[in-house]
Amino acid sequence: MIKKMKTIFVKNYEEMSEKGYEIIKDVIETKEQPVISMTTGGSPRGLFTLLVEGVNNGLDISNTVMMNLDEYIGPKNAVYTVNTFMYENFYNKINTQPKEIFLINGEADNKEEEINRYKEVLNAYPRDVQVLGLGTNGHIGANEPGTPFDSTIFLAEHDDSTIESTMREYNIERDEAPTEMITLGFTEILEAEKVILLVSGKRKSEAVKNLLEGEVSTDCPATALRDKDNVIVIIDEEAASLLDEETIK
Ligand code: PGA
User: Fold this and answer.
1) Distance of alpha carbon 9 from alpha carbon 129, whole angstroms
2) Which of 86, 94, 116, 179 is most open to solvent, judged by the fewest CB atoms within 10 Å of its CB?
3) Active site residue 219
């Protein structure tokens, strides 16, 4: 099996968050104009807490450009949007702001135009880091099962399991939950110099098994990352619980 991506096995969510933070902190401290593209949701919450602490204790982000992987289609200030998450968990909590903040506008009337606008941002700011979470169905961003591995930023429809994850994460009912989002495709995701995939918890264990031991197939979108040497997967014990011993060695 070809596997070039790097795997880091850690004990729990806290250790996963710390490892992720160490990598990002190093990039912020060493690059002249670091460009960091984040994800939102349960997986990176701990990492954001550490980043807030870091920035408020002197980690200098004045030259850092921040952006995001995706955005739900819906009102900008809805509880579930990437915009809301980023302000509540990061921008409103730090005592100094990054050089630039880019977000996809999920309430834009013309989605095509918004995609093209963000494409220009992506072209202007090659990413040093792209942070990712893993869907229970193996999705990456909103690249759901069946998405071709050469996808580029597009308007995606969510699978049912993704809608359920959003309901769970933001404590909302099905009729309030978004069903579409604009997401980077694998092409832009893998263009980042470092891609960090954060995976924690039992509910991710099957997706992790498919990612590391299954066929490379669009049935498990995350397998698009397997033979890429710029990808670092940080996996905790619960998420790794279905893996063969050989894989963990
Ligand atoms: P989570 O979601 O980080 O909230 O578990 C990951 C994902 O579905 O992409």
Assistant:
1) 20
2) 116
3) no
